[in-house]
Amino acid sequence: MEDVILRLKKVAGQVEALVRMIEREDGCDKIIIQFQAAKAALEKTYSLVLDRSLKECMSHNDTENVGRILKLISKQ
């Protein structure tokens, strides 16, 4: 999970940069690009965690947790 923590720290850095850009009133195009980058990085990290969680539950034949994960996903 160290790679996930590293990814999340990078996302946090992107969000902090985004806050600074908005405070400085940088151009809209730069702000939108930064939003997209942060969003993509967070979505990639989410997919990685979801994939690992499902694989782990399935390898242990843990249908209860798989069901919970699927229920959480469907609430999005």
Please name the defining characteristics of this protein:
76 residues, mainly alpha, Methane Monooxygenase Hydroxylase, Chain G, domain 1, 3 helices, 87% helix, 0% strand, metal ion binding
Uncertain stretches: none
Helical fraction equals: over 70%
Structurally, the number of domains stands at: 1
C-alpha end-to-end distance: 24 Å
GO molecular function, one term: DNA binding
Protein name: Transcriptional regulator
InterPro entries: Metal_Tscrpt_repr (IPR003735), Metal_Tscrpt_repr_sf (IPR038390)
Pfam family, one: Trns_repr_metal
Fold and architecture overview:
This protein has one domain: Metal-sensitive repressor, helix protomer (Methane Monooxygenase Hydroxylase, Chain G, domain 1). The two termini are 24 Å apart. α1 (2-23) packs antiparallel against α2 (28-59). The model has no long low-confidence stretch (mean pLDDT 87). The protein has helices at residues 2-23, 28-59, 63-74. The longest helix has 32 residues, at 28-59. The protein contains three helices and no strands. It is mainly alpha-helical and 76 residues long. Belongs to the FrmR/RcnR family. It comes from Chlorobium limicola. This is Transcriptional regulator. InterPro entries: Metal_Tscrpt_repr, Metal_Tscrpt_repr_sf. GO terms for molecular function: DNA binding; metal ion binding.
